[in-house]
Each structure stands twice: as structure tokens, then as C-alpha cells.
Amino acid sequence: MKSTEHTVPENEEEQLCYDVICDLDHVSGRVEGSATTRKYMWNELWSMLAYLGAPTWYITLSPTDIKHPIAIYLAQYDKIIHSQLNLDDSHTKLLADNPVASARFFHIMIKSFIKNVIGDNKENVGLFGCPALQVTMP
Q1: Same domain, 22 and 68
Q2: Distances from the Cα of 33 to the Cαs of 14, 21, 30, 54, in angstroms?
Q3: Closest CA to 102 of 58, 128, 55, 68
Q4: Of the candidates 94, 89, 66, which has an alpha carbon nearest to the alpha carbon of residue 79?
Q5: Could you write out the DSSP letters of every residue in 111-125?
Q6: Distance between CA atoms of 106 and 28, rounded to whole angstroms?
Q7: Residues 68 and 43 in one domain
Q8: Of 124, 74, 64, which is closest to residue 98 (Cα–Cα)?
Q9: Cα 38 to the chain's mean position, in Å?
Q10: Domain boundary at 52, 69, 84, which?
Q11: Shared-domain flag, residues 70 and 29
Q12: Structural domain includes residue 5
């Protein structure tokens, strides 16, 4: 089956194997993260691309929290904040010991990006004008 894209069962035993594979595919379609779920999502993506067209651009955000002063401030919940931060490995350990601070920092950065760059409503349009926040499908 790996060597070809399409195979046909040649005898009754192979047909039974195909039936088991089909049943497993049907059951695993409801399991999050399974190969079948990924296959369904992939098919849905290609259908949306065919219907709506390809997006004009993608954005991938990755706010780095290890050396960012806001993240360090959030991680130092009961420590004195100095005006000049010493950016060494102690801050990496500090943020590793406080994952909630990293999550709060991520939330603040993403919320700020959406509000100021993309725009979150008609009053705050962002850099590129009023975004289409919803895709309407008939």
C-alpha cells in the first residue's frame, strides 16, 4: 500500500483488512490530533482555498519573553524592579520558574498587536484599514 497511491483488495482477507482500516479511520475522525482528523482538516483547508481563494499574506507571531522587560517585570512578582535590567541567565530561570508570567506576557503582546496593527473594531482600524474579522460563507 505504501508503494502506490491507489490499491484494490485482491482477495477476501485483504478486503477484511481494508474494512478494519476504514472502521479505524471512521472512529479516529473524532479523536483530536489523530491522522484522520488532520486529513479532514487538510481537506477542509483545500476546500476553503478553492472556494475563497488563497490568502494574500500570513502573519506568524512569536513574542520573545526571555529578555523583554515586561515579561521580566511580570515574573518578578515580589521582587524590586531596577531601572536597569541585568539580562543574563537569571532572567531565563526566572521566567522558566513562572510560566504564568510568560502566558500573561504573550496575552499582552498579542492583544496589543491585534489592537494596534490589525485593528479590533471600526474605531480602531489599525495600520491596514478595517480588517475583515469574519469570513461569511453562503
Answers
A1: no
A2: 28, 18, 9, 25
A3: 68
A4: 94
A5: HHHIIIII-SSSSS-
A6: 33
A7: no
A8: 74
A9: 14
A10: 52
A11: no
A12: no
How many CB atoms are located within 10 Å of the residue 119 CB?
Answer: 18
Average pLDDT, the chain: 77
Q: One-letter amino acid identity for 24? A: L
CB count, 10 Å around CB of 120? 14
Q: Which domain holds residue 128?
A: 56-138
Which amino acid is residue 135, in one-letter code?
V
The string of DSSP letters for 35-87 reads: HHHHHHHHHHHHHHHHHH---S---------SS-HHHHHHH-TTSPPPSS---
Please state the φ and ψ torsions of residue 38, each to the nearest 5 degrees: -65, -40
Classify the C-alpha dihedral 68-100-92-113 as positive or negative: negative
Per-residue pLDDT reduced to its tens digit, 100-134 = 888 888 888 888 888 888 777 777 777 777 665 54
pLDDT band at 47 (very low <50, low <70, confident <90, very high): very high
